[in-house]
Amino acid sequence: MTEVEDTVADAKPDFDAFEPGTVLLSGIVGSTAYGLAGPGSDVDRLGMFAAPTLTLLGLHTPRDSHVTTHPDVTFHEAAKLARLALGGNPTASELLWLPDDLYEHRTPLGEEAISLRMAFVSAPRVHDAYLGYATAQFRKLLSRDPTWTHRKIAKHARHLMRLVNQGHELYTTGHVTIRLPDPERYLAFGESVAADPEVARPFMADAEERFATARTVLPNEPDTAAAEDWLLRVRKVFWAG
Question: 174 and 77, same structural domain?
Fold first, then answer.
């Protein structure tokens, strides 16, 4: 067993924070999923749970996110994950696009969400979210924060490149490849940018041009009716907890 595999095996999320049977979907995301993890990388997990419907009707509603570090685990309530995905959030949407072997827990309602993943996407929101997040990363890199280490700069640069390429893929094909086919290229780019952040400038200029000239296959608006129907099925199943 490799070091990463050993870490994955030892750090599975604890479902005790949730009502029994309410976790709908969970899996490994982040650098491990992309193929960019190194010996010191954390193993990130993302999941979705359903709050018992009756608990949503009172004055004091339950938390809609559970986040822990060491291990790094984030679980969003079904409605919150749906809203994030409808907004084009790349991190939340990732849960719906994982390769099969990276899912650790799946249920019928979780499978439905995966099958509906195209209902959550729209061209303007994918464009703004993926390219917008990458642009924000680029500005941080150019700020040359003296507290940032070489390793941190390289990590941000890798994810800048990933956001651009995955976003462009989704924008033009309607699919996202989570496990990168050429992680070495991203690692090399990260090291180059860590040595000189200006290396990222022509990449971002090209990214803006690629998006500006691309023909999208995505609709102008997400299918909120399909997302709503799915969420109402979740609420019905978990009506009494």
Answer: no
Residue of 12, 61, 14, 5 lying closest to 37 (CA atoms): 5
**Per-residue pLDDT at 134:** 96
The answer to whether residue 218 is domain-embedded is no
Range of the domain at 195: 123-213
Residue 200: Cβ-neighbour burial (10 angstroms; 0-12, 13-18, 19+): buried
For residue 113, give both structure tokens.
Answer: 């969400």
Cα–Cα distance measured from residue 76 to residue 64, given in angstroms and rounded to the nearest whole number: 6
Number of domains in the chain: 2
- DSSP label at 196? -
Q: Is the pLDDT of residue 160 over 80?
A: yes
Residue 204 lies in a domain: yes
CA distance 27 to 134: 24
| pLDDT at 11 > cutoff 60 | no
Q: How far apart, in whole angstroms, are the C-alpha atoms of residue 234 and residue 63?
A: 17
The pLDDT score that the predictor gives to residue 170 is 98
**pTM over the 0.85 mark:** yes
Q: How far apart are CA 42 and CA 8, in angstroms?
A: 9
Query: Do residues 233 and 202 both lie within one domain?
Result: no
Question: How long is the chain?
Answer: 241
Q: Does the structure show a pLDDT above 90 at 91?
A: yes
